Amino acid sequence: MKAFILDRYGKTGSTRIGEMPEPEPGDDDVLVQVHAAGVNALDSKIRNGEFKLLLPYRLPAVLGNDVAGVVTRVGSRVRRFKPGDEVYARPETARMGAFAERIAMNESAVAIKPATLDMEQAASLPLVALTAWQALVDRANLSKGQKVLVHAGSGGVGTVAIQLAKHLGAFVATTTSTVNVEWVRSLGADVVVDYRKEDFAASLRDYDVVLNSLGTDVLEKSLRVLRPGGKLISISGPPDPDFAKDIGASWILRQVMRVLSRRIRKQAMRRGVSYSFLFMKENGEQLRKIAALVDAGIVRPVVDRVFGLDAAGEAMAYVDQGRAKGKVVVKVR
């Protein structure tokens, strides 16, 4: 089958369009004919080798961590899906491969796609929507009347997190550039900080939750906007000891993560707040709940650009620029 393949780790010259063996579904798997695949910063980080200690893929491997398509075969123990079902998913972390004509996934990672979306829109959602859900619902337990700061409101995670937080009844602040101020306000943000003109840490106070997807300087400044007991949740690192324990990391890797996160954890402790690193997990049940919100008009996907499979490298380069408004999608079929 045709696929976008990672041959070796590295920013340049490491990927190509080529042929890969057809995936063979197991007893608990569904085989999906891919129609579209979302492009994420995670794809670039995997390509660059940033996660090779945590996610030791056997190369060559097919990139891609968001998918929408049609079920063509099901394993003997699959009960929730049948051939012909239109589905969307974030494949299991160890089984990425959405930039290809077909992909096999455990049925637990898969959900029927939102009926109101086309394949490209559906493919844009799984990873970012699950990230927003697991940060705001599972980790933060966000509730009505609380205040949340969502950094990078015009990005893939940010666009969904703003809408989900408003649905949960929170007061939402976000950061973005000048050109996107009114647009993120239209998504539901109550306060928009233009980072080109204003320092968010100087104008925001007493927030319950901060969802960070940016660098170390923003991460550390975010502690200053939290009230005592508040929660700083970061999807861009550094990984913490709880994450190391969760993934069953080796003793050496656990110590490395402890050292990497020591500074921010100590700063958080001094301010009476908590810090945690979130690496989103696949979850078909949560995707079913998200699909219901989408079909009810509560959450809408934001697609910036659509590329063909042959241009998957260009799609990743565009995402790497950090200027995408919402999500970038690769159309496979």
UniProtKB/TrEMBL annotation:
It comes from the Bacteria. One of its GO terms (molecular function) is zinc ion binding. The keyword Oxidoreductase applies. It holds the Pfam family ADH_zinc_N_2. Keywords: Oxidoreductase. InterPro entries: ADH-like_N (IPR013154), ER (IPR020843), GroES-like_sf (IPR011032), NAD(P)-bd_dom_sf (IPR036291), Quin_OxRdtase/zeta-crystal_CS (IPR002364), YIM1/Zinc_Alcohol_DH_Fams (IPR050700). This is NADP-dependent oxidoreductase. It comes from Tahibacter soli.
